[in-house]
Specification:
This protein is an alpha/beta fold. The protein has helices at 41-52, 66-72, 92-102, 117-126, 138-144, and strands at residues 4-7, 32-37, 57-63, 80-84, 86-87, 90-91, 107-112, 130-133. 32% of the residues lie in helices and 25% in strands. Helix 4 links the parallel strand 7 (107-112) and strand 8. Helix 1 crosses helix 5 (138-144) and helix 3 (92-102) runs parallel beside helix 4 (117-126). 34% of the residues are buried.
Length: 145
């Protein structure tokens, strides 16, 4: 399975060290705090394995439904959110719009599959700063992320 991370420019997004693609890096120690908003347990396990390969990343939250994310994410300490567009009880695009307004300095990344360009365009218009393509090995995804 390949996971590739892109910023709005289409280049690989630098997620450690300096700032991210579209928002400012307000963490001076370069440890990135992320929250995963995803309902698929297999995807969560896979992404969790990729994150564990990165000592500079810390999981600070998880929501598996739109309603839970809508309540918890605005108060999260995360500076990066990975948002599934197909959440139970709501659309990821609506959540992106809310998070972009409530937390303008965070990175908002979406999970997507190759070929779902119309949905990706809507997500970017809603406030996503980048996207993650589903599809490679844990090792490859750890290197990309």
């Amino acid at each position: 399975m390949l996971i590739v991370l892109y910023a709005l420019t289409g280049s690989t997004l630098p997620l450690h060290g300096g700032g991210g693609a579209g928002r400012s890096d307000h963490n001076p120690h370069h440890v990135r705090h992320h929250a995963d908003i995803e309902d698929d347990a297999a995807i969560l396990r896979f992404v969790g394995s990729a994150w564990r390969q990165r000592p500079d990343w810390r999981l600070v939250g998880h929501s598996d439904t739109y309603v839970h994310a809508q309540v918890m994410a605005p108060n999260s300490l995360a500076d990066v959110f990975l948002v599934d567009l197909g959440l139970p009880e709501g659309r990821g695009e609506d959540l992106l719009r809310q998070l972009a307004a409530a937390k303008p300095d965070v990175e908002l990344l979406v999970f997507t599959v190759f070929g779902d360009e119309p949905r990706l365009i809507h997500a970017l218009q809603a406030g996503a700063t980048g996207y993650v393509l589903k599809g490679c090995s844990e090792r490859e995804s750890g290197n990309q992320v």
